[in-house]
Design brief:
The protein is mainly beta. It is globular, with a radius of gyration of 22 Å. About 5% of the residues have low confidence.
Length: 494
């Protein structure tokens, strides 16, 4: 077996000082939405998001007409960019993952969206007829709308639950997509099925030549229902729903087998097989032997053998982020209450090399209800989206808050300690936005690197006459990094 880490028993599962709910100011950015499933920071400095259907503040299902929207986090103005008329929402389905192409502002103004739709006779890979399938479609952004749909992937097994699907572009501009096993557990270990996998593809849906399995989109397998995905530290991390126990956070490696349904969590022959398990659930007392025989990759975190909190969205707070107590951490949100915790926002601090979790802090435990996704702005602010109108807010008939569903900004309001002098020094840049010449309060000769919102380097400038010339860059938002490798500001090029 491939043992990434086995440290969960040493992680504190309570808040660990240094950071607490009171250190944040929560502000509603957008309200009265319907299950904003994906939120991602766009190159226009707005939050782009999906809504599973057009049902608004209603839990009535099925639903149709899912949306792609964006909101200006400064003004709260929400725009509808796309209505998907053939989308289908039932339980966990609808309009789901979204990703913006890294070259959006230059040559490829493309947005990728995953959604489910109805197809008569469709199955989940077994003899179970679900009449639901999943597909990924690429749209072109034009005149404040998403147009010209191009199908990238289609006919992925669907069901009312366990359909993934998170999207994430890697630094090499290949695209990852998570898929659930569509309630057919055997799909996960079946390499001919796209379900229960993390898929990797080129931006046109073709198979990259360096994929681990020739002529296959399968990048990793043995997954149940991963709904969190982020790349950082030269690694890919995913968050995955467990069954009645063992939600997981994994480091994804090419051709890695993550064990489902034969392994739940670690290779420890636990828990025992639940009495209500379906017929295709293997005996969990054989986990260790299955792990050895199949080189199983173990998770770096689980919710334990007695609890599940329904791990959902996942993001990364960088090592040079503005809030020192969050630096080099995975930020994870959850949907349900486990043994005592859940419906929360968790800070999972990583080891220096990013291969293990060394500390966990739980924030906002059951404050916002079900939390579906999370994103981090280029300047280090955190945004979360609720999922309280997905029909699972309450088993007692209690209605969700009148403002829900919503996108909430979590602004760290405590004085940051342990920050270097160059981070404390304000950078004065003007005019901002700029059409080209940008005046900066750095000495001549200082090297400044400009990054796009995905963190990719786009230009290096030497300060001359207290200014730099950005005329050749495309319109968009850029981060400024100084010679000490610190993000010290952002600029809007128009």
């Amino acid at each position: 077996m491939k043992k990434i880490i086995l440290l969960s028993s040493f992680i504190s599962f309570l808040g660990m000082g240094q950071i607490a709910d009171a250190d944040f100011t929560a502000t509603n950015i957008a309200t009265k939405l319907h299950v904003p499933w994906e939120i991602t920071w766009g190159p226009d400095n707005k939050i782009w998001f999906t809504e599973r259907s057009g049902q608004g503040q209603s839990t009535t299902q099925p639903g149709t007409n899912g949306k792609v929207k964006r909101v200006d986090p400064e003004t709260g103005v929400v725009e509808t960019l796309l209505t998907i008329t053939d989308s289908y929402e039932s339980q966990e389905t609808g309009v789901l993952g979204l990703a913006i192409h890294p070259d959006f502002t230059t040559t490829k103004p493309w947005v990728y969206v995953v959604y489910t739709y109805q197809k008569s006779g469709a199955t989940n890979g077994t003899n179970t007829v679900t009449n639901i399938v999943e597909k990924m479609v690429r749209y072109t952004y034009q005149n404040n709308q998403l147009v010209n749909p191009t199908i990238i992937l289609d006919n992925i097994y669907g069901n009312t639950t366990h359909v993934g699907s998170r999207l994430h572009f890697l630094p090499d501009k290949t695209l990852l997509m998570t898929t659930g096993e569509a309630q057919s557990r055997s799909n996960s270990q079946n390499l001919s099925s796209k379900s229960g996998k993390i898929l990797r593809m080129n931006d046109d849906g073709s198979v990259p030549v360096d994929n681990p399995i020739a002529n296959s989109l399968v990048y990793s397998f043995g997954h149940r229902n991963p709904q969190g995905l982020v790349a950082a530290n030269g690694k890919v991390y995913s968050a995955e729903h467990g069954d009645v126990s063992n939600d997981e956070v994994n480091v994804i490696i090419p051709n890695g087998n993550y064990g489902w349904p034969n392994v739940w969590g670690y290779c420890d022959n636990l828990p025992t097989k639940p009495s209500n398990s379906p017929s295709d659930q293997p005996d969990l007392t054989l986990e260790k032997s299955f792990c050895t025989a199949n080189n199983i990759v173990e998770p770096i975190w689980t919710s334990g053998n007695t609890s599940t909190e329904a791990t959902a969205g996942l993001d990364y707070y960088p090592k040079d982020g503005s809030v020192s107590v969050l630096q080099n951490s995975l930020l994870l949100v959850t949907l349900k209450i486990g043994t005592s915790l859940g419906r929360d926002f968790r800070v999972l601090q990583l080891s220096e090399d990013g291969s293990s979790i060394v500390k966990q802090t739980v924030l906002f435990n059951n404050v916002f209800g079900r939390i579906r996704d999370i994103c981090v702005s280029p300047v280090g602010d955190i945004y979360i989206s609720t999922s309280n109108y997905d029909g699972r807010f309450s088993t007692s008939g209690t209605n969700p808050p009148v403002t829900d569903d919503r996108i909430v900004k979590l602004k760290y309001n405590k004085t940051v300690t342990g920050v270097s002098d160059d981070q404390k020094e304000a950078i004065h840049i003007y005019p901002n936005p700029t059409q080209g010449i940008l005046n900066v309060n750095f000495q001549d000769g200082e090297k400044l690197t400009l990054l796009n919102v995905h963190g990719a380097e786009v230009a290096v400038y030497t300060v001359n006459n207290s200014s730099i010339n950005m005329s050749e860059l495309s319109s968009g938002v850029y981060l400024i990094k100084n010679s000490k490798n610190r993000i010290v500001g952002k600029v809007f090029k128009i």
